[in-house]
Write a structure and sequence with these properties.
0% strand, globular, single chain, mainly alpha, 278 residues
């Protein structure tokens, strides 16, 4: 009796998860299909699901209207640099809070995490003034320097580091390894899933960032993809060319999609093993 009930529960769970997956995938699928339609097909009633004929020209129009290649290079460079930096700085901070003993460690860690509670909108004006004072507005420095470190990464990695047996580090210290060597040669290689998870989340957040790149850059030379999409929207607004805008949006999601496809196993493992140990 227990076995059939378990099969029924598992079947119901799969059906529920499949339905939720369809709900979450539908907007993305609709965006891809809309990018291959004409405007009349997008707003047709009853709705036309599949484009007839397929309009590939929408993608070429995007490249003709805005310097998307330049925006792509800017976004890839900025997002990759910020992601790599946050992985390194977060790993160093996480190792300190996970392994070293010093007075008021837990209190300092709580205060450190409290920075995440401050809304980003509150820090925009002070951050802009600082960047203007040091002369990095409309440069890559304004897009990268303020985000080289962030508390969430330290929190995520600290939870993972706590799950690594300390015996490995004790053996390394007996062999004369300094703390930094232990971190980079032992702890970080064992934390690959968590590091990839943090790198993906940081890359995705930086790639999708719009407000700060819009505020801190003034020329197309340093615009990112998201700012470029806003420029494209402004150029196509009068014509109401939503199919071309959908094509630009699809192009902007490709790097994130590729990154996720190749790292999804490590991403799931990183979340499942990080836990909430304190």
């Amino acid at each position: 009796m227990i076995q059939p009930l378990r099969i029924v529960n598992k079947t119901f769970l799969y059906i529920l998860l499949s339905a939720l997956a369809c709900i979450f995938v539908f907007p993305f699928l609709w965006m891809v299909l809309a990018s291959l339609k004409t405007n009349m097909q997008i707003f047709a009633i009853p709705p036309i699901i599949f484009p007839k004929p397929i309009i590939w020209k929408n993608y070429s129009i995007v490249w003709e209207n805005v310097p998307l290649a330049r925006f792509y290079i800017n976004s890839i460079f900025v997002s990759s640099t910020v992601a790599a930096s946050q992985v390194i700085t977060s790993a160093m901070a996480a190792y300190v809070f996970a392994r070293l003993q010093f007075p008021k460690k837990h209190l300092i860690f709580i205060v450190y995490l409290g920075v995440m509670m401050i809304p980003s909108q509150v820090t925009v004006i002070p951050l802009f003034i600082i960047c203007r004072k040091i002369g990095i507005i409309d440069t890559y420095g304004a897009l990268i320097l303020p985000f080289l470190a962030y508390p969430y990464g330290a929190f995520l990695l600290r939870q993972f580091f706590l799950s690594i047996p300390s015996d490995l580090e004790d053996a390394a210290r007996v062999d004369g390894y300094p703390r930094m060597a232990i971190l980079f040669r032992i702890v970080m290689p064992l934390s690959k899933p968590a590091l990839i998870t943090l790198g993906l989340l940081t890359f995705m957040f930086t790639w999708n960032s719009f407000f700060w790149p819009l505020v801190s850059t003034n020329t197309t030379e340093h615009y990112t993809v998201q700012v470029g999409l806003a420029m494209l929207k402004d150029q196509l607004h009068m014509a109401g060319d939503w199919s071309t805008l959908m094509a630009g949006t699809v192009i902007s999601t490709i790097p994130i999609l590729i990154f996720f496809i190749f790292t999804q196993k490590n991403l799931i493992k990183g979340f499942s093993l990080s836990g909430l140990k304190y």
